[in-house]
Automatic annotation (TrEMBL):
UniProt-listed Enzyme Commission number(s): 2.4.1.82
Keyword annotations of the record: Carbohydrate metabolism
Gene Ontology molecular function: any one: galactinol-sucrose galactosyltransferase activity
Protein's name according to its UniProt entry: galactinol--sucrose galactosyltransferase
Organism this protein belongs to: Miscanthus lutarioriparius
Classification via SUPFAM superfamilies: (Trans)glycosidases
EC supergroup of this enzyme: transferase
InterPro entries, per database record: Aldolase_TIM (IPR013785), GH (IPR017853), Glycosyl_hydrolases_36 (IPR008811)
Length: 714
């Protein structure tokens, strides 16, 4: 492993940085070490199999935006990196990127360079454990945590000034990436310098230079910046695929149950059937099942002071073979016929890398033959510790199977009260990066738990899978029915849930003043969840070593329809900016222009969800905005199509909506009548414009109701 310094903090580029080792002596793989007086190579070149960046010519506008002057990397006249050695050069990273930095940091014994520039605040996503990330925010390079996987920066120069308003916001992104057989990470040091750590994980795998190990890009929209950058890195590196190009598993749109917290390793066939039945009887049938650890055939082994349980057979263990359950195939067939579930299996194990495909092909072939629909592989992070003798961590993990879905944070821990708010904050911030690569799984939760409403609301906004690990018969169906329809479907939003722009550089857990707002988008509405995560926990691990006492903090903040990014995707060409905003918990309806705001006040561990629907004008007279199933957390997720037909006698709005449930919409005027599947229904129309009526159960296979709202021509 080797290290270099990115002298920080200052401005806006899209670049890639690389590292060259002046000496092969940096071969330690256990930690990052600083060699005083050494400046290692930062360069911008591509491996032979990748795109040759030297053939890309920047446009005049790109050249004017990014430049290197007297050791400072400038974008739009603002510095990002300062006091770089004189042999630093700049060239483009690819189409749509302003510049790529190629930097050779020379060896100058005894000299330390410190950044003089200020004017940036940053968000870091860093690994606090070998298997999980969490966020940190700050200013100055010194506080950037070790093992940082991403740094997003916002320029604070001239904030609030007329010049800033004219130029707009400026964001920069730094992504340490894979480079050949090496991986990179970032970390700050007390001298206010940003270090670049480069490692293979195998002492026999060394290099004299690091090529394209840090990618830097910039833009005026942080969400578009991340999306475009991840797409670009995917294209240049070829080591992963952007989420838009992955096939999404169908089970994501269905409610699920996992056996882990319910049974841990004591899982057994009768318990599985009991759990499925209890949820089904409560009106929220699981449509996929994860049989977690405890079903495989393992043996106990003790090596020194360590106990392990290696796999001894690909088939199920004795609990799933006997008189009441003949075998795994028998159980799967039985529960599929009775409960209509898809089945996933959980597995943990370490396999010789040379035999990895043989092992998984054999295991998956067997599981498929008995009716298993998918496999969840846990503890994949262990692969990076096994690189010695196999070409390093990158070589080993490149053989791992690629997925469209993956966990986004530390596990849900029902017995750790101070971890509940940290979990929500972590998954939301981690999804900024991870949501561009796969659909983040925000983990299971318990419906019968003091934080159930808090977790349930967050899962509704996650854009990912919704599942619980309740013990059989221990459920709060009032929470579950805000997430799950009677057929087992959920109302999943379009994207990964992420913090709103004004929350990106705040600490929603410990600063005592900031609310966490998470946004997402549906086909016809936006949605924002506001969470008070203050006072209930702190960013310290492990939890057992802390003596934190939760306190209640009341916080007031602001919410605006403009907090929903990409609202233009659903607003239509003729939209005048007015929205209908429905608050889930208070059942209140407001009308706001896009950039107007309303006040939100919450106490610790409480939340509110706002469904935001652009108000459209139909036939020049009917002002209308659908809200969906307003007794569900993400009500707008139920809307599949909205259209209208008008003639001389009436204007009819047609809606295809999931059900059953209470349908709601904003309607400026009272309609003449409402129909559901061609049957007229009673409706209510309040003074604030809230129109409501009930969508009855239906036997249709797609679970969609045809709603007609008729307005008589005046």
């Amino acid at each position: 492993m080797a290290l270099t310094r990115l002298l920080m903090m200052a401005s806006r580029p899209p670049c890639s940085l690389s590292l060259s080792l002046p000496s092969p002596s940096y071969k330690k793989t256990s930690r990052c070490c600083c060699h005083r007086g050494r400046r290692l190579l930062l360069r911008r070149a591509m491996p032979g199999a990748c795109q040759d960046l030297s053939t890309i010519t920047p446009t005049p506008r790109q050249q004017s935006m990014s430049q290197l002057e007297r050791g400072s990397l400038l974008v739009g006249g603002r510095e990002l990196l300062v006091r770089a050695p004189p042999n630093v050069t700049l060239r483009p990273a690819g189409a749509g990127v302003a510049a790529a930095s190629r930097a050779l940091l020379s060896s100058e014994p005894g000299r330390r360079r410190r950044p003089a520039a200020t004017g940036w605040r940053w968000l870091s996503l860093f690994r606090f454990k070998i298997w999980w990330m969490m966020p940190a925010t700050g200013v100055g390079a010194a506080a950037v945590p070790a093992e940082t996987q991403m740094v997003l920066l916002e320029s604070t120069i001239e904030a609030g000034s007329a010049a800033a308003a004219e130029r707009g916001s400026l964001y920069a992104l730094m992504l340490p990436v894979l480079d050949g057989g090496f991986r990179a990470s970032l970390q700050g040091i007390p001298e206010d310098e940003l270090q670049f750590c480069f490692e293979s994980g195998d002492p026999d795998v060394q290099t004299m230079e690091a090529v394209d190990a840090v990618f830097i890009n910039s833009g005026d929209n942080p969400f578009k910046l991340l999306k475009e950058s991840i797409k670009m890195v995917s294209k240049i590196k070829g080591t992963f695929t952007h989420i838009e190009h992955k096939e999404i598993p169908s089970n994501l749109d269905w409610f699920g149950w996992c056996t882990w917290d319910a049974f841990y390793k004591a899982v057994n066939p009768s318990g599985i059937e009991e759990g499925l039945q209890s949820l089904r009887e409560g009106g929220v049938p699981p449509r996929f099942l994860i049989i977690d650890d405890g079903w495989q055939e393992t043996v106990d082994q003790i090596q020194g002071s360590r106990r392990s349980h290696p796999l001894s057979d690909l088939k199920e263990n004795h609990k799933f073979r006997g008189e009441t359950c003949k075998n795994l195939e028998y159980l799967i067939k039985k529960i599929k016929e009775k409960h209509g579930v898809n089945l996933e299996k959980f597995g943990v194990g370490i396999v010789d890398p040379d035999k990895i495909y043989e092992f998984y092909n054999d295991q998956h072939s067997y599981l498929s033959s008995v009716g298993v629909d998918g496999v969840k592989v846990d503890v994949q992070n262990v692969l990076e510790t096994l690189g010695r003798g196999f070409g390093g961590r990158v070589a080993v993990t490149r053989n791992a199977l690629k997925s469209a879905v993956a966990k986004a944070s530390e596990d849900f821990m029902p017995r750790e009260p101070t971890l509940q708010t940290l979990h929500i904050a972590s998954v939301a911030f981690n999804s900024l990066l991870l949501g561009e690569i796969f659909i983040p799984d925000w983990d299971m939760f318990h419906s019968e738990h003091e934080s159930a409403e808090f977790h349930g609301a967050a899962r509704a906004l996650s854009g990912g899978v919704v599942y619980v690990s309740d013990r059989p018969g221990v459920h709060d169906f009032s929470v579950l029915k805000k997430l799950v329809l009677p057929d087992g479907s959920i109302l999943r939003a379009r994207y990964a849930g992420r913090p709103t722009r004004d929350c990106l550089f705040t600490d929603p857990v410990m600063d005592g003043k900031s609310l966490l707002k998470i946004w997402n988008l549906n086909n016809f509405t936006g949605v924002i969840g506001v969470f008070n995560c203050q006072g209930a926990g702190q960013w310290v691990w492990p939890v057992k070593e802390t003596a934190y006492v939760p306190i209640n903090i009341n916080i007031t903040g602001q919410l605006s329809p403009s907090d929903v990014e990409s609202l233009e995707e659903i607003d239509g060409d003729d939209w005048n900016g007015e929205t209908a905003v429905y608050a889930f918990s208070s059942c209140s309806l407001s009308r706001l222009q896009k950039h107007q705001s309303l006040e939100v006040s919450l106490s610790t561990m409480t939340c509110e969800i706002y469904n935001i629907s652009p108000i459209k004008i139909f036939s020049e007279v009917v002002r209308f905005a659908p809200l969906g199933l307003i007794d569900m957390f993400n009500s707008g997720g139920a809307l599949h199509n909205v259209s209208s037909i008008a003639d001389s006698s009436a204007t009819t709005i047609h809606i295809r909506c999931q059900g059953p449930g209470r349908f709601g919409a904003y309607s400026a005027t009272r309609p003449e009548l409402c129909r559901v599947d061609e049957n007229e229904v009673e409706f209510a129309h309040a003074e604030d414009g809230l129109l409501t009526f009930y969508l009855p159960p239906s036997s249709s296979q797609d679970n969609l109701r045809h709603v007609e709202i008729v307005y008589k021509a005046s």
